[in-house]
Amino acid sequence: MQSTNQFNSIQSINTTNTYTNSNTTELSSLHDDNATSTWEDYATQLVNGQIINNNGNTHSSNAIPNESKPKPSTFRSNGSCALWNTEKYGGNFFSDYTINHQKQIPNGCVSTVLSMLTGTLASEFRNPNGKYAVNTQDPVEWSEALENFSMKLANISTDCRKLYFYKDELLQYNDLWTISYYTPEDPYDIFQDPDDDGRICGSHIVILHRNIIYDSCRNGPISIEKHGLLNKYVKRIFRVVPSNHSRGL
Length: 249
Fold this sequence. Notes:
- Strand 3 and strand 4 (212-214) form a beta hairpin.
- The chain contains ten helices and six strands.
- 29% of the residues lie in helices and 13% in strands.
- The protein has helices spanning 4-12, 21-28, 39-47, 86-89, 109-118, 123-126, 139-146, 164-173, 187-191, 224-227, and strands at 151-155, 176-182, 203-209, 212-214, 222-223, 234-242.
- Strands 1-6-2-3-4-5 form a six-stranded antiparallel beta sheet.
- The chain has two domains: 4-68, no CATH class; 79-242, Cathepsin B, Chain A (Alpha-Beta Complex), CATH 3.90.70.
- The chain is α+β, with helices and mostly antiparallel strands.
């Protein structure tokens, strides 16, 4: 993770390359050794909004050539950066939990997920006057609502990589999670600036219980391997834990 000073350096660079030697060394180590352009040039173009999509096509005529892109990360979550420390925080909280699948109304994925987790009507979470009304953009409120049902959400250390890279570890825990992901598959659509209403792109939330996905847009439960969400970029992952657990939002 870059320090604040390093981040500020990226924001302030220009075509004359104003990096310090220490920053240049660190950032250059992330660059393709066979590339002809420098990492500083690439960072400059990123700051200027000249982004490359996942097909290698540029959204600006001055963006860095495809052959000069840094190599994509091949990192997978592992024992040194586990999603959950079972030895420290325990596990198998809701592995035997029963979930009844539900279909959502349009734009009702959050309330329907909360409904499936609790067995309560989705309208109680969705409607402003509902008993457990939540802001659909505020996971803290989701967790607070779940505390009425002796559960809450625990934050998980993730980033915006594809769910595929988290799948194996998630399945090892054999428990109950919520997974939010961005619906576009082109990173350019995810990382663009928000519009006048503050919207960037679509996202969706589903439940993972053991190896089964409960998706309110589907007709019924489906295995994670068959769902099709593994190629989606992760927005958030929460573990569902008892309300008295030390972890939470």
